[in-house]
Amino acid sequence: MEDELNGDLGLCELTEQFANLELAGAESTPIKELRRLISNYRRRLRKKALHRYQQEWVSARRDWKILSDGRERPNDPSKTDLVQALSILIPERGRLAQAMRQKESMSPESMWQALTDVYSLISRDLTVIYLPGMSPQEGMCPIPSCQKSMDE
Questions:
Q1: What is the mean pLDDT of residues 73-88?
Q2: CA within 20 to 30 Å of 76's CA: 19, 29, 108, 132, which one?
Q3: 80 and 139 co-located in one domain
Q4: Do 91 and 58 reside in the same domain of the chain?
Q5: Taking the C-alpha atoms of 28, 34, 39 and 43 in order, what is their torsion angle to the nearest 10 degrees?
Q6: What predicted TM-score, i.e. pTM, was given to this entire model?
């Protein structure tokens, strides 16, 4: 996007004027004024480019939804479905995500809970993920009728 903005004719002209003023040894006031104009012009260009991108994205999304009759799910590069599923399997992760989204500061109790959750996540062996309440207890299967050693 920056390359596209730098190729704008108006911005190139302003930049050239700025370079000429600096070479000519002009006073600092016109140079500062031109620097402000360049900054404002660049800001407007970025805003227009972002708005244009947003419109194109919404249009492409709408077209895709129409073509798929709303049946197909979009490609989710951020894997939000996976993160939500992991929050169910690992409640500590869900609590931490919720605590991080809060705008206001945390109470001491919730801060201790968050620290406990962080410690639990970093100290636990996550090579096997158990459902909440189903992790081995003292190396044994948590189901009362089973009680087999989990080391076997």
A1: 71
A2: 132
A3: yes
A4: no
A5: 160
A6: 0.42
